UniProtKB/TrEMBL annotation:
Keywords in alphabetical order: Hydrolase, Metal-binding, Zinc
Domain of life: Bacteria
Source species: Pseudoduganella lurida
Molecular function GO terms recorded: guanine deaminase activity; zinc ion binding
Entry cofactors: Zn(2+)
Gene3D superfamilies: Metal-dependent hydrolases (3.20.20.140), Urease, subunit C, domain 1 (2.30.40.10)
Stored InterPro entries: Amidohydro-rel (IPR006680), Guanine_deaminase (IPR014311), Metal-dep_hydrolase_composite (IPR011059), Metal_Hydrolase (IPR032466), Metallo-dep_hydrolases (IPR051607)
Cofactor note: Binds 1 zinc ion per subunit.
Family the UniProt entry places it in: Belongs to the metallo-dependent hydrolases superfamily. ATZ/TRZ family.
Pathways involved: Purine metabolism; guanine degradation; xanthine from guanine: step 1/1
EC number(s) per entry: 3.5.4.3
Record keyword Metal-binding present: yes
Amidohydrolase-related domain residues: 67-429
Name this polypeptide is given: Guanine deaminase
Length: 433
């Protein structure tokens, strides 16, 4: 039965390794053919060698002139902050107080949560993001609304209820016991249900009591294949605050380490003010950093150090951190990441940035073999990029000499307009225009 087989002719870009550490990290088929069956990739190769193997009744979707990549993965984003993106405040802590907490309060209402979740997911698909690691709010109903909307679209999404039981407004506080009970019920309802995966989500050390950190660490040990997401070492005032709240800890990251929260599938947002001991612990525990350049520049938090992260061998992935971040687009996130690296005296090639938004992110999430590359057996989550999507990009990409130059122009100049189509599980979930 070939009725569930689809085929796409385009330039095909996919990664097998990290371009920073491997000469042959990617494959690029200039005139390629991608074959999908039953929602999974079944073959990838050159049109000239592969098209003869297509069953005669399969129509080929012709995307010649465009580039297909694995769908982008956003390793840190807050769906409840969609409505406060681009809100002015002098730094992280005032921004949380003035905008974030009041916006999150509204998710007590499931109808509001559903409305925002639907907008948020449609926006992700418009920018080519097919998987994201998503913060909900403290309200369990915000998680139910999110996964209901993502499953209706057939998406591979990871999300969880925020845990916070101190240093927050009363209307957003849970308790150590209730937060963990609610999280456990949500794990049982959603983790592994359809394509949903659960992330245990202590907001950050300042908003959890020691009792909540203890119970959260124990919950993570009972469910070792769930994700853990939190924030660490984002802002210097925050780092100082953590020192006063947890005086016994060696560093901010060490607070999480003491409660057993460094492990595969633990993803730490920001990681700007780390020391070498912290970097070593992230690397040796196979935890990962979510690097959020638009947010870090917007809030004035600081510059991520790609060189030191690489020297330590840390897993890392790019992320938007909307609503602290100022764009949903992973292309715009690459644009800012490139400039952050330059300001730190290092250099991020475009190939590396595309890796960090696809396979590198899948590796950071320990989901390689499921998503993140155009490899046979992977879920068919991919994006169709149009190098001629705007007059400027058309003019610039008409005379690129290499794949690197082409991808660099897409990263620096591209955005939602560059995404001609997005596919999830082999289904068209967004088409531009
Ligand atoms: N630290 C704790 N909460 C948040 C949040 O919502 N956004 C960012 N950027 N940092 C945080
Ligand atoms: Zn965040």
């Amino acid at each position: 039965n070939t009725s569930t087989v689809q085929a796409y002719r385009a330039g095909l870009l996919t990664f097998h390794a990290d371009p920073a550490f491997s000469e042959r990290a990617h494959s690029y088929y200039e005139d390629g053919l991608l074959i999908v069956a039953d929602g999974k990739i079944s073959a990838i190769g050159d049109w000239s060698t592969l098209h003869a193997s297509l069953p005669p009744d399969v129509a080929v979707t012709d995307y010649r002139g465009k580039i297909i990549s694995a769908g982008f993965i956003d390793a840190h984003i807050h769906y409840p902050q969609s409505d406060i993106i681009g809100s002015p405040a002098p730094g992280l802590l005032p921004w949380l107080e003035q905008y974030t907490f009041p916006a999150e309060r509204k998710f007590e209402d499931p109808a509001h949560a559903t409305n925002v979740a639907e907008f948020f997911l449609d926006e992700l698909l418009r920018v080519g993001t097919t998987t994201a690691l998503v913060y909900c709010t403290v309200h369990p109903q915000s998680v139910d609304a999110f996964f209901t909307a993502s499953e209706a679209r057939g998406l591979r999404m990871i999300a969880g209820k925020v845990l916070m039981d101190r240093n927050c407004p009363d209307f957003l506080c849970d308790t150590a016991e209730r937060g963990v009970l609610e999280s456990e019920a949500l794990i049982q309802r959603w983790h592994g249900h359809e394509r949903s995966l659960y992330a245990i989500t202590p907001r950050f050390a300042p908003t959890s009591s020691e009792a909540q950190m203890q119970l959260t660490g124990e919950l993570a040990r009972r469910y070792p294949d769930t994700f853990i997401q939190t924030h660490v070492s984002e802002n210097e005032d925050e780092v100082k605050w953590v020192k006063t709240l947890y005086p016994q800890a060696r560093s901010y990251l060490d607070v999480y380490d003491r409660y057993g929260m460094l492990r595969p599938r633990a993803v730490f947002g920001h990681c700007i003010w780390l020391d070498e001991g912290d970097r070593r612990r992230i690397a040796e525990t196979q935890s990962a950093a979510a690097v959020c350049p638009t947010s870090n520049l917007f809030l004035g938090s600081g510059l991520f150090d790609f060189e030191r992260a690489d020297a330590a061998g840390m897993l890392m992935a790019l992320a938007t951190d909307v609503g602290g971040g100022t764009s949903f687009s992973m292309l715009q996130t690459m644009n800012e990441a490139y400039k952050v690296a330059r300001l730190k005296g290092s250099y991020l090639p475009a190939l590396r940035m595309f890796y960090l938004a696809t396979l590198g992110a899948a590796r950071s999430l320990h989901l390689e073999g499921t998503i993140g590359s155009l490899a046979a057996g992977n879920e068919a989550d991919f994006v169709v990029l149009d190098p001629a999507c705007t007059p400027l990009l058309a003019r610039r990409t008409a005379h690129t000499d290499s794949l690197e130059e082409m991808l660099f122009a897409l990263a620096l100049l591209g955005d939602d307009r560059t995404v001609a189509a997005t596919y999830s599980g082999g289904r068209l979930v967004h088409r531009r225009g």
